[in-house]
Amino acid sequence: MKRRAGRPRWATRVLAEIHRLVARRSVRFTFKATEELGELDLGIDEEDALLILAGLTADDLAGRIESDRAAEWLYVFRPEVAEPSCT
To answer: For the range 42-50, what are the long-range contacts, defined as Cβ-Cβ under 8 Å and sequence gap of 24 or more?
Structure first.
């Protein structure tokens, strides 16, 4: 498997798993996550969030951090989901 320069080894595996879970409709949002979607003031709901997850690419990857609460990694993505308004 070829690796793109600058892309962590685990990125391809993580993205594939996210895309697989979205395709199987196996992603569930907590009540808190659903509330936070509404607080973004972007007008997106859970279905929109699933579309965003399905479209994630390695370019959206911001990194990963180790969880303070569990022995696991938290993957951070920062996709562009809305065009900046020009007023």
So the answer is: 42/81, 42/82, 44/81, 50/22, 50/25
